[in-house]
């Protein structure tokens, strides 16, 4: 028969490590009070784990006149605490120890100087019982001492009396906030000897109701009289069971971790990010003048094609026109300027004259020779500055990225994601301009067929010159009345004429065909450049806007996972 094994939850060590991880991830994102409180819980739990686990520290806590000290003496079997009518009677916590050997470091950590061996041998070996000051004392130091020890002890025994068991100060300040600690809590209704049996039952039922409303369902409630000894045997038996288990300390620490994790926030699934990169890329491309650059790439390609493959007689005229890409400072040795940051020669607001990203001044940091154009791309481009509308669209796109990513996050984390989206926005202008310059510079590479056509054009031009010289020589000989040499012909047309006219016609025809090919090539190159620019600009947007947002979402995901493990 196969045995069923009970599934165990995460260990205390793993939960403690998860809480520490959550506090580190929440640093700067959540209120400092919650983060520091969780860190203090983790540190406190770490210290308690290293101290004696063979001893259980139980504290008798209650209001003035509830009879804590009387109950403390009755359990200890000796008059260790002063009991009287003058309030407050207990001014400092003291400890009664059953087999207290080895409990010294634990009591030192609790800062309990008054320690007494218990006279009662009631099987409570390992119990360290504390008598605390009144939680409603008129002395502030007494209340602070109670608050300090309530956070440290392993087991809480709340002592109430028939007159003040419903006191709002007790329920609102201690019991309700400690609902997660019901596994290490007992409630004792003391002084029941002052009530008839029917009134005791009514008080117990009413106290049970109040505890259930406080979230403390299941917490044991005992009726006790320290004066007559009624109910003490049941209380000793219950304390003995808790001490014998040796689990109160770990149960207390687990409850502390759960409470601290709850104060950091409820674990939630990481929201699915919405794709806003297209809108961001489109806005950056528009602001960076990508459409203008793409148009200049097509025109520049046709311009350089005419210069390289046009008819040698007229191509020099084309050289008088400016290269469209050179006018935008794109290509080899481009001077400074800038599209998103301001007019040519100006830097965007907040930029120093030094080159961005730690590069040498005036250098884009990427050699165009590596792209095959044989020179270095220097400085910023001279694409016209982005208009106010274009800059507003970029800012809107960045804001939309942050809002979309933060839409399902809790308030502090949502603010952190929005801030992450804007954290590197000041770097966008320079980064986009660099990728526009370097990516567009690849469009200046000369196709190989230009060289072949250029050689062919010069051969045809040479043939034309040969025909012209030949005809010139014949004209001179005829002018000098010299005998004409034999003249070869092509049919009836002399070769000099064929060379001259054919060279002119062939050169013009080649130039026209090359221009047609350059027009088609310019369109193809413009499309390729547009795709490359969108990809490059999109990568900049991803690096400077989307990546910080993803990092913050990843941080939140790890925080949520750690919080879930801590609360398990």
**Uncertain residue ranges:** 1-7, 333-378
Report the order of strands and helices: HHEHEHEEHEHEHEHHHHHHEEHHHHEEH
Helix percentage: 40-55%
Structural class designation: alpha/beta
Tell me about the largest β-sheet. 7 strands, mixed
What's the count of strands? Answer: 11
Cα distance spanning the termini: 31 Å
Count of runs of 4 or more consecutive helical residues: 18
Mean pLDDT: 81
Q: How would the global form be characterised? A: rod-shaped
Based on CA atoms alone, the radius of gyration comes out at: 45 Å
Percent of sequence in beta strands: 5-15%
Oligomer: single chain
Strand order of the largest sheet: 3-2-4-1-5-6-7
Topology:
Blueprint: H1 12-26, H2 32-50, E1 56-62, H3 68-76, E2 94-97, H4 104-110, E3 114-117, E4 127-131, H5 140-150, E5 155-160, H6 168-175, E6 185-189, H7 197-213, E7 221-223, H8 232-245, H9 248-264, H10 277-287, H11 290-309, H12 315-318, H13 324-327, E8 363-367, E9 376-378, H14 388-406, H15 411-422, H16 428-441, H17 448-479, E10 489-490, E11 493-494, H18 495-567
Parallel strand pairs: 1-4, 1-5, 2-3, 5-6, 6-7
Antiparallel strand pairs: 2-4, 8-9, 10-11
Helix pairs in contact: 1-2, 1-9, 1-18, 2-9, 9-18, 10-14, 10-18, 11-18, 14-15, 14-18, 15-18, 16-18, 17-18
Region (Disordered): 328-373
Organism: Nonomuraea angiospora
Pfam families: MMR_HSR1
